[in-house]
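User: two proteins, same treatment. go.

Assistant:
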Amino acid sequence: MKYHIETMVCGGCVRSVTKIAQNVDPMAMVEADAIERTVEISSEQIDEITKALALAGFEATQIAA
């Protein structure tokens, strides 16, 4: 699923978002782009990942496919 994260603005944010997602699901595939402020996450635990991201200040808004 693809998401917009307004607060993901730099490489450090990309690393944080990736780490958070993979801490919830080590098998998660994460592709993040700080310039576009988007992240694509493939995981069976997507709800848990988006909750963890929100708790860390990275509110993820789903983008229609």
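Protein 2:
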Amino acid sequence: MDRLVAFAVSRRFLMVGLFAAVLIGGLVAFQQLNIEAYPDPTPPMVDIVTQSPGLSAEEIERYITIPLEAQVAGIKNLKVIRTISLYGLSDVKLQFSFDYTYDQALQQVLNRLSQLAPLLNNAQPQISPLSPIGEIYRYRLVGPPNYSVLDLKTLQDWVLQRRFKVVPGVIDVTSWGGRTKTYELQVDFNKLVANGLTMPQLLQAVSNSNINVGGNTVNIGSQSAVVRGVGLIRSIDSLANTMIASNGGTAVLVKDVANVTVGEQPRLGIAGENQDDDIVQGIVLMRRGEQSSPTITRVEELVETINNSTILPPGVKIERIYDRKDLIETTTKTVLENMVLGIVLIVVLQWLFLGDLRSAIIVGATIPFALFFAVSILVLRGESANLLSVGAIDFGLIVDATVIMVEAIFRRLAHTNRMSASEQAAISAKITMDMKQHAILTAAADVSRSIFFAAAIIIAAFLPLFTLSGVEGNIFGPMARTYAYALAGGLLATFTVTPALCAIILPAHVEETETLIMRFLHRLYMPVLARSLANRRFVLMGGAALVVMTAVAVHLLGLEFLPKLEEGNLWIRATLPPTISLQEGNSYVNDMRKLIAARPEVVSVVSQHGRPDDGTDAAGFFNAEFFAPLKPAKEWPDGEDKDALTARLLAQLQEKFPGVEFNFSQYLQDNVSEAV
């Protein structure tokens, strides 16, 4: 280390260039750094969703859920099987140990499902694409007054879904709300019998006609033309004119025995927003393991492209409801604010205690160097940052080594001021930069061992975090690595940039003075020290008693799975009576949504009642969820905070809707908690 310090002092302007390069490179890396709100704490999980409309929950359990459980049981590293059987829906969640990656677990499940015997009604199990932190973007489709939710849902299913799925990093899009278009046959059985037909014949004819078939080729001159039969149903008329059979040489068409109309699929869920009781909503899902920041950027670019093109009919637009980017920007802002505040506090405290502003600035320079050094390493290694990993960095520990180095150099340079005036004048005449460098090198050599010993203690305290595995490893592993990168950056700055800045900024002679605050603390501390030394036994007994009291108090502390991150929203879950119908429950849901939206702190409210058509959110008509983004706290009524808002809303909801259970959380927090 002495050689490194000597090189840094002799090439001090090169070290300043290194400092600038790390800052500039760190700023560039910070723009590219993927920042997540939460680390994904969940083990590999595979969710098997099977729908069979019309079957009761008991039949779903007996004929679908239990066979699926039996089929996947015994897979290696499978730890937990959780199942839900609802009307028309089976949901089987498989939780694996961390010995498997998600892809490995998925492959094992697919291998087992490929050997599954046919299920009742030919139900087909599907793998849900949902993940705890996968919902990155929510939107709704809006159109002119002449567009119904059926029209908007058709655009969502046939136009938007496939465009979002091709975005790199996106695995699927879940549609919520709206009405799914169907063609319905209202059969006149008297006409059917009169034509000598049966229902199976009618169904078979319609099924066979709704396909395109290929033929051979035919040569027309020198050209070859493809022969094909186009039978795909595109309208009511094409379905109505479908031939069923021939009766006495006359073709019997569908319209001869049935009335063809446009209908809708039985609804499983309804979405609403503010005063609009029925909307079409889409949820963009990110693939597991992808980075959210670039994926969200690509989704936003696609939304802008669609809205500014003719992909959608005139007047139909995509409106954003939720964007993970808001939370990421809040996280980024928090990190930057902490860095600036840390620099200011450390510079001020160093100035107050040492009495020299220049040395305080040198100490403060270590913070951005260490932080941007860590950011650069994260980007180079392709790792992500989150508020837990970056926000947990203790700037006091990072600059601890720098403080020791600067104070040692400051004292060494102040040594000449403790000589007599004649000695100081004689030496001062001969002092050159070489002697100043010698003073810096001597000071660095004196404290280098102490610095490394202090760093070793800090590293030893973090070693257990590197050995964690499973959920704990997923949560604290990124924090430990980020802290290690920042600590390495701080040590690098201590032995390179700090001596170089001292050689440039600090004068050859400094005066060591006792500041006002140090004199006050000194007068306060000396009597305490004298009494402590005079009563050593009582002091040690008091320390031991404090340790015992601390050990007892630890058991009284509350526990939280994850630190609470302020997301700036509310996620409210309402549990209605289990047998309530969708229509009756939705009338209550609409009233709840409007009550929540009436609060001045709330920007808007989106409600979800029931479940989406693809069954990925396993819930019955008894379940309703509300997403309420909140205004900035400075715009809230005086004296109001989030806890008070939650208590007030809960009281209002319980008063107006007795018997309904309400649970308050946050959007991302609810997803993570539900998965774990």
